[in-house]
Amino acid sequence: MDNVPSAGQVGPVSPFLGDPDAPERKDAESLGLGLFNESLEGWADLYAINTFSVFFVTSAFLGLLAKGSEDVKDYWSSVINITSISGHIKIAQNHAS
């Protein structure tokens, strides 16, 4: 038995990352300071959606995973979690991910 959950939510966005001429992209220090201004609440919400859901859904499947592993000797059930930024960054469709 395999389960492949694949849900996610776009979180905080740093508009200057899309602008190569933005002052925040001048050097590593400027980039670090620009990213340091992100919203803690926004990241906490994103983490809750994208991480907690995987943990709790996988935990809920433990009984089924154990039963599935008993069906065929030397095989076991697994949960595979995948993610993608393709829905947010359209150019990813043209690159191997």
Coarse morphology:
elongated
Helical content class: 40-55%
- Report the order of strands and helices: EHHHE
- Tell me the number of helical segments per DSSP (H or I, 4 or more residues long): 3
Separation, N- and C-terminal Cα atoms: 25 Å
- The domain count comes to 1
Which structural class best describes the helix and strand composition?
Answer: mainly alpha
Gyration radius from CA atoms, angstroms:
19 Å
Low-confidence stretches: 92-97
Set out the fold topology.
Blueprint (H helix, E strand, L loop, with lengths): L1 E2 L24 H9 L3 H21 L1 H10 L6 E2 L18
Put the structure in a nutshell:
The chain is mainly alpha-helical. The chain contains three helices and two strands; from the N terminus they run βαααβ.
Description:
With 97 residues, the chain is mainly alpha-helical. The chain has one domain (14-90). Helices cover 41% and strands 4% of the residues. The protein contains 3 helices and 2 strands; from the N terminus they run βαααβ. It has a two-stranded parallel sheet with strand order 1-2. The relative contact order is 0.20.
